[in-house]
Amino acid sequence: MFEYNTSKSKLILKEYGRNIQKLAEHIKTIEDKGQRTRFAYTLIELMRQLNPSIKDNGENFQKLWDDLFIMTDFTLDVDAPYPKPEPDVLFRKPQRLSYNYEPVEFKHYGKNIEKLIEKAVAIEDEAERKGAIIYLGKLMKNFYMSWNRENVEDEVIMRHISEMSGGKLNIQIEEIKNSNLFDINYNKNRSNNNKGRRSGSSKRKKN
Asked: Is the confidence at residue 195, as pLDDT, over 80?
């Protein structure tokens, strides 16, 4: 005789398969509690092997035991290392995630830029703070150009840094422009120019 899925009992947890569910149901029929418990531990180990993604930590092992109790309709009586979950765990809705509704003044920079500016304001060393402003200027210029698909003047970036820091972070715009401090490709171009000079000097030496 063939056994059809429609005639079988409902498969409760599909990730373990029907054979695991049958073993769980068989363990319920064992009269001796000590023997039931030993078989339950063996079945838990088998369930763990069938799910190699489960790592060896307490939280994941507790999930295995919870799944075993679910497969046995919460009627399995064994000495488990974790308390039996309540049946309403199957219908309990997950907790809603809390979202950050704090307004972002400049959306194209994002919240992380605001946090970086807060850290830069807290820097006491002037040279280190200036380095932080230059880093922020390059980063914000890159974000601005990616968001708006157009070039932006250094004055705009410096004004935004000043506004977002409450006027605590500032560099003279003349210094920024003269030294290309906010130029995204400045360090790359300077490195390439240095390579060109070195290669030119080596050629002169060979000649």
From this structure: no
